[in-house]
Amino acid sequence: SAFAEEAKILRELRHSNVVTFRRCYFDEQRRICLLMEKVSGEPLDRWAARQDRSQSVLDVYDRILGAVDYLHHRTTPFLHLDLKPDNVLVRSTPEGCEPVIIDFGIARRSGRPGLKAFTPPYGAPEQEAGGALDCSTDVYALGQMLAELLEVLDPPLPPDHALRQVAA
């Protein structure tokens, strides 16, 4: 089942910007249940719209890139396949704001067939076509998220400036 696959993937992940898996069990009706870390925060786009410093938004985006890089550079890469602002919660910590990637419901190991499931406009062309999925599928969604973040920054930054900041 999709939940069993999600549990297998999450059990192996340990990253501060990826939701923490606690355990998997069956309820009284023999339905599989996943117990996850409770993440208090707000979706990335709503959080970003309230920020008064462009750099803080780009710093959070950089941490999202680090988490996805972690997923993609495992022995067998993991693909989230549903990256979007609602699946990145930003929580406040004493050190600042931390993004946490959640909802690995359609995640797959690289090289395994993916579901023809996605959230427009974050779904890559290969997802829409039901084709082979790889790390570039998540990168497409990250690009869409960055474009949306750049639209809410005040003052707006030209895309090339933001990309230089994130890459630095």
Please give the structural blueprint:
Layout (H helix, E strand, L loop, with lengths): L1 H10 L9 E6 L5 E5 L5 E2 H6 L4 H19 L5 E2 L8 E6 L2 E6 L6 E2 L15 H5 L5 H18 L6 H9 L1
Antiparallel strand pairs: 1-2, 3-5, 4-7, 5-6
Descriptive tags:
three-stranded antiparallel β-sheet; two-stranded antiparallel ribbon; alpha+beta; 168 residues; 6 helices
3D structure, described in words:
The chain is α+β, with helices and mostly antiparallel strands and 168 residues long. The protein is 40% helix and 17% strand. It is built from six helices and seven strands; from the N terminus they run αβββααββββααα. The protein has helices at 2-11, 44-49, 54-72, 125-129, 135-152, 159-167, and strands spanning 21-26, 32-36, 42-43, 78-79, 88-93, 96-101, 108-109. The strands form three sheets. It has a three-stranded antiparallel β-sheet. α3 runs antiparallel to α5 and α3 (54-72) crosses α6. The longest helix is centred in the middle third of the chain and has 19 residues, at 54-72. The model has no long low-confidence stretch (mean pLDDT 86).
